[in-house]
Specification:
The radius of gyration is 17 Å and the shape is globular. The chain has nine helices and nine strands. It is an alpha/beta fold and 231 residues long. Strands 1, 2, 3, 4, 5, 6, 7, 8 and 9 form a nine-stranded parallel sheet that branches. The longest helix has 20 residues. Helix 4 packs across helix 5. It binds pyridoxal-5'-phosphate (PLP).
Length: 231
């Protein structure tokens, strides 16, 4: 067994235990393998071990990996900061975009999706810890961003994404996850299509179990699967 396969098994077990603790079905949690800086042959080992969804932060890096792994059935999620001038490529190459954090980007993705005759599934990124160093729409702008984005028929707003403050103790992150879930529920109450608004992308290597207990439907795990990234 490769080290990635062994790590994957451990993570699947931990997802299962977290789901058992809160009465959720493990199939309601999508594990996204985050592959930034991970060389293609290691990513391949992950997919061969059972990963089906991968997250990438940079369009250029992702494109080269997509070419080298084009024989594999992979759903590619864009999880990095997206500049508007990369929106065209994001729509062309990715299946989901997690990081819509401003109206101008939502509009550009909508425009590019129309050009390709596609409806792009997206998440709205929220700066839930109100941190200067982080991207994401301020919590106070979430409703207005949602109202605009959900009026655009080239994008399908499927939920929210957050990268909460790093805390040594994952329990300390719980209030942020809970706030995200509350926000999603409020948006759903006011949405004309609440059945589409179901996803919460939150939780990473050190806090994904707490995120699952608080309702995450997508966890983005890098280090715990592929090892430390070069700094
Ligand atoms: C790198 C990254 C992750 C994965 O982080 P790990 O701590 O390595 O699991 C998740 N989400 C985003 C947005 C990232 O940039």
């Amino acid at each position: 067994m490769t080290f990635v396969a062994a790590n994957l098994k451990v993570i699947r077990d931990r997802i299962q235990s977290a789901c058992a603790r809160c009465g959720r079905d493990p199939s309601s949690v999508c594990l996204i393998g985050v592959t930034k800086t991970v060389p293609p042959h290691i990513v391949r080992a992950g997919v061969e071990a059972g990963l089906t969804v991968l997250g990438e932060n940079y369009v250029q890096e992702a494109k080269s990996k997509m070419e080298q792994l084009s024989d594999l059935p992979i759903s590619w999620h864009f999880i990095g900061h997206l500049q508007s001038n990369k929106a065209r490529q994001a729509v062309e190459f990715f299946d989901w975009v997690h990081t819509v954090d401003r109206v101008s980007l939502a509009r550009e993705l909508d425009r590019q999706a129309h050009r390709r005759g596609k409806r792009m599934p997206v998440l709205l990124e929220i700066n839930v810890g109100d941190e200067k160093s982080k991207n994401g729409a301020p919590v106070g702008e979430a409703v207005s961003l949602f109202e605009v984005a959900s009026s655009l028929d080239g994008v399908a707003v499927r939920g929210l994404m957050a990268l909460p403050p790093y805390e040594e103790d994952p329990e300390a992150v719980r209030p942020y996850f809970r706030r995200m879930r509350g926000l999603l529920e409020r948006l759903r109450d006011s949405s004309p299509s609440p059945h589409e608004l179901t996803e919460l992308s939150m939780g990473m290597s050190h806090d994904f179990e707490v995120a699952i207990e608080e309702g995450a439907t997508m966890v983005r795990v890098g280090t715990a699967l592929f090892g430390q990234r070069p700094t």
